[in-house]
Amino acid sequence: MDVAIPDGIDPDVLAETIATEKAYSQELQRGGEWAHIWRCVGEYSNISIFDVADNDRLHEILWGLPLFKWMTCEVTALATHPSDIALLAPSAG
Amino acid sequence: MDVAIPDGIDPDVLAETIATEKAYSQELQRGGEWAHIWRCVGEYSNISIFDVADNDRLHEILWGLPLFKWMTCEVTALATHPSDIALLAPSAG
Amino acid sequence: MDVAIPDGIDPDVLAETIATEKAYSQELQRGGEWAHIWRCVGEYSNISIFDVADNDRLHEILWGLPLFKWMTCEVTALATHPSDIALLAPSAG
Amino acid sequence: MDVAIPDGIDPDVLAETIATEKAYSQELQRGGEWAHIWRCVGEYSNISIFDVADNDRLHEILWGLPLFKWMTCEVTALATHPSDIALLAPSAG
Amino acid sequence: MDVAIPDGIDPDVLAETIATEKAYSQELQRGGEWAHIWRCVGEYSNISIFDVADNDRLHEILWGLPLFKWMTCEVTALATHPSDIALLAPSAG
Amino acid sequence: MDVAIPDGIDPDVLAETIATEKAYSQELQRGGEWAHIWRCVGEYSNISIFDVADNDRLHEILWGLPLFKWMTCEVTALATHPSDIALLAPSAG
Amino acid sequence: MDVAIPDGIDPDVLAETIATEKAYSQELQRGGEWAHIWRCVGEYSNISIFDVADNDRLHEILWGLPLFKWMTCEVTALATHPSDIALLAPSAG
Amino acid sequence: MDVAIPDGIDPDVLAETIATEKAYSQELQRGGEWAHIWRCVGEYSNISIFDVADNDRLHEILWGLPLFKWMTCEVTALATHPSDIALLAPSAG
Amino acid sequence: MDVAIPDGIDPDVLAETIATEKAYSQELQRGGEWAHIWRCVGEYSNISIFDVADNDRLHEILWGLPLFKWMTCEVTALATHPSDIALLAPSAG
Amino acid sequence: MDVAIPDGIDPDVLAETIATEKAYSQELQRGGEWAHIWRCVGEYSNISIFDVADNDRLHEILWGLPLFKWMTCEVTALATHPSDIALLAPSAG
């Protein structure tokens, strides 16, 4: 997710939007659907891992991001890796 | 990490190399340096997250992969994201 | 899915692999998971639509393709489009 | 089809244009020329399949999209795939 | 259409294939389906214009090229341009 | 030739420029220098073939296009193809 | 780091921002974290080498650049090279 | 060197800048540092060859171009080619 | 023009081909059609300027290069630049 | 500089070539022309800074690398950056 905020945005509107974005993300992190988030060094962008029921739910989450209109998202479908040690646990999910 | 195994490799050598690769990865996962691994759907490649002391250690791990000679790796430097809820915990790392 | 068959493959092995591939695809089409398949004009490649339970199942299908080792796959996550007339039907899925 | 709506568009004009776009798409879906439409997850874009008489008709449809001036379209020519099970039916089209 | 002939091909086989390719192309040119062909300067590739009934026929023509297995084709769907003076003629096709 | 018309252009100025562009193109088509023009399906762009004395003349034609300032042109040098049936005619040009 | 300053910036604000940027860079160079800086010939961009404690610190430095909002940064993780003669010194770091 | 002049520039300012640019280029051509200049057909760009003392001087020349702020430059380091017939002359430079 | 010589070429054949290539290039340089040649630093490639009658002649020259089968050529059409001081001379060509 | 060593190279020849490469690099480092070398994490490639008299000398160094035939080099021309603190020293070079 790359964010490109156009010049000339009202600073108050921008600050409020970023605060709303943070709250939105943290609520989904607490709910477990937004599993991980990292900042890409030197960029206004992040790499996130989502654990959701299906593609429709993922699109709903991304489309609902307060900063969505200034974002470019790239989605990579991920699956369980056969070397993941979570598969070795008694009750691997 | 994309893997491209050339045609004509001896199947026994290949099977052994893949087994060694899996053991190598799982040992580092248990040690905590190889934090996450996911399979990219429809590709012989993975997306992994490493939590290592420095760049020299990361290179040592990747260079030591039994399949390294047939791999193409792309490394993205990641940092803590300000929205990460781990930062809200009493003792965030 | 692009297919690149290396020169020097035994023609009998190749013919058999292509036949197995076709049977594999048609069985999944009949089962409904491989929803659509089209040929890209002028290329040894196709565009297909899959309707599967989750990413693990999709990877299992693609990884199991008899021609997988000579293929390059690119997966795009798709969701229901709000303009799709299927949503207007009494019992849209 | 990617849509990029410039900042500063009058919200009423935009809402009306999107509504017109939806009606335009659904009429063509009902007529059978716009065979499929899916949303690309996390993007303001779609992948659609058209079943039209010729290239002139396809261009006429796309050029007539109410959102065309803010769109980037990429057209891939598709043909029947020899593995398509529709070819096995008594009267395949 | 780019052609990349691998090293090590038997020269006689190659010469015969190129001769067959030329005859194949010229027959389609005479039939009117292969409307134009130009050489890209400094490359073993060409730009061609086809005037065919539909995508299935175009794929059949390209797939049947004797050099197809060593080619990379890129197909661009073309339509009548509104500025084309052919549209001004009494019986424009 | 891709055309990207910026938002906010006066509609009358735009309509007049497009009309001038069409007249300019048709005059050169009648003169034989602008040999072919096709519309790329789903894009505000065209593929054209020019038959001109030299590069200076080609640049003069393109630079003189009324829409040139909003265009991106990509020029591919073309030569006669040895399979072109025009070479078989008694007086091939 | 590429810099793209939008047209229409107040020249005084710009001059002051560039001066602040220079002071910011030189302070970090003196502190040793910004190890090297070179200008890319013919571009408003630079290639720099940073020697920092971790990725969080590197992101903090880049994010804090006065010109950051007009920059595009690309970060490449570097490690010690086995051929580096610094490794041959009595107390290589 | 590609030039992209934004819409809305005052035509007088633009005309004067282009004239200054031309004089600047011609002075350097006469001095021998700007060895060659060609127009890329159909583009507002050129390919130039510079023969300068070092990279600092080349950057100074490019940075000083009156149109520099609207340009994108790509610099390729060139060296003497062993097949160059200038090397065969009695006093090759 | 990039050259990529495959491993396993007989060294004598290679040395002879390179010598033939050099002679071929120098003859065309003496004739004036191969106006300039430079080596790209750090690459087995060159940038050359040709001054030929037309595209057919340019293709004939490039296609005839002894190393052509291992080359990738990219041709850019160039025209006279309006700032070129050669235009100021009494008898500019 | 990326290195891609083809499968099937004799291991002894390879080991010797890598050793020669290391000695070659270290001699140039001691002489000051090869100013810096870093390993790109996770890749068989490096980023190096050269401080040489001119482009001909740089090409001579790179072309002479024992691994050159398996390398892909990308050269970026660098100049002194106006923010470099070396310029503030009494006798900046």
From TrEMBL, chains A, B, C, D, E, F, G, H, I, J:
Gene Ontology biological-process entries: beta-ketoadipate pathway
Reactions catalysed: (S)-muconolactone = (4,5-dihydro-5-oxofuran-2-yl)-acetate
Molecular-function annotations in GO: muconolactone delta-isomerase activity
Record Gene3D superfamilies: Dimeric alpha+beta barrel
Isomerase among keywords: yes
Domain of life, source organism: Bacteria
Residue ranges of domain Muconolactone isomerase in the record: 1-84
Pfam families: MIase
EC number: 5.3.3.4
Pathways involved: Aromatic compound metabolism; beta-ketoadipate pathway; 5-oxo-4,5-dihydro-2-furylacetate from catechol: step 3/3
Keyword tags: Aromatic hydrocarbons catabolism, Isomerase
Keyword set includes Ligase: no
Subunit-level organization: Homodecamer.
Family statement drawn from the similarity comment of this UniProt entry: Belongs to the muconolactone Delta-isomerase family.
Descriptive protein name: Muconolactone Delta-isomerase
